[in-house]
Amino acid sequence: MSEQAITYAHYEESFWNEFTPGEDDPTKGAEQIINWAYKSYGDSLVYACSFGAESMVLIDLIARVKPDASLVFLDTGLHFQETYDLIDEVKNKYPSLQITMKQPELTVEEQAEKHGSALWKRNPDQCCYLRKVKPLEEVLSGAVAWISGLRREQSLSRAKTQFVNKDERFQSVKICPLIYWTWDDVWDYIKKHNLPYNALHDQNFPSIGCIPCTSPVTNSDDERAGRWSSFNKTECGLHTTTTP
Ligand code: SF4
User: Fold this and answer.
1) Is 177 among the domain residues?
2) Residue 51 located in a structural domain
3) Overall number of domains in the chain
4) What residues have CB less than 8 Å from 199, skipping those under 6 apart?
5) Are 67 and 55 in contact, with CB atoms under 8 Å apart?
């Protein structure tokens, strides 16, 4: 059986999308799905980690199940220093985790030479494709499944996310353990377990990505309002099916 067939067989056989966590389950199904995912996919499972608030929860849950799990950070070269500082903290706290900093083919300077400076201002979809989507395609070319921290309440486009998703963009299975978590759940867990988190969260940055495309948020209930706030764009392309 080819790797592709194994991927979709797992998806078709999955019973998780009929599963509703009990009210007494403190992780709202996350711990169970993570356990199942590592038993099913083992070393073929990759966590694409953004090091946002949800990531801190997932890292902690994953490290309990598989202390040497593989994490990939899409290092666009345009992240805040606070994000790199947090990655160092995580490496110290969870020394067995395998954290890969995946860089795009072109440095920021090379991209400017080839496509013009500040591509994110003129064509953010192309910029995200070059610096995030394509690198993740390369990472997932050897993986059967990946984990993402999507939550249903984050946006309308994420409201129907399942625990186990057929990911046609990356020809893979996307596992989302936190679909039932609220923003408060995430922070309750971080505080309860004394987890590290990005210092920018305390400066009105609920969602943190690249410097040019992330702004502080004031007077908004939408925690993703600070992402691409000057552009007609809400997603980097990792969770959509179209290619720019
Ligand atoms: Fe480029 Fe902005 Fe996407 Fe980062 S978030 S890859 S700077 S468009």
Assistant:
1) yes
2) yes
3) 1
4) 82, 85, 86
5) no
Nearest CA to ligand 1 atom 5: 210
The reported pTM is 0.88
Distance CA 135, CA 30 (A): 27
User: Residue 130 CA: which ligand 1 atom is closest?
Assistant: 6
CA of 131 from ligand 1 middle (Å) equals 7
Q: The domain containing residue 163 runs over which residues?
A: 3-108+140-205
114 domain residue, yes or no: no
46 - beta bridge partners?
Answer: 70, 146
Quick check: is 30 in a domain?
A: yes
Residue 124 Cα to ligand 1 midpoint, Å, equals 6
- From the list 148, 236, 237, 238, the catalytic residue is 236
190 or 2, higher pLDDT: 190
Are the C-beta atoms of 182 and 153 separated by less than 8 Å? yes
Instruction: Tell which residue, 99, 100, 37, has the closest CA to residue 65.
Output: 37
Known catalytic membership, residue 176: no
Q: Is the predicted pLDDT of residue 45 greater than 70, yes or no?
A: yes
Residue 52's CATH number: 3.40.50.620
CB 203 within 8 Å of CB 196: no
Q: What's the average model confidence in pLDDT over 34-50?
A: 92
Query: Ligand 1: residues within 6 Å at CB?
Result: 76, 78, 120, 124, 127-128, 131-132, 209-210, 212-213, 236
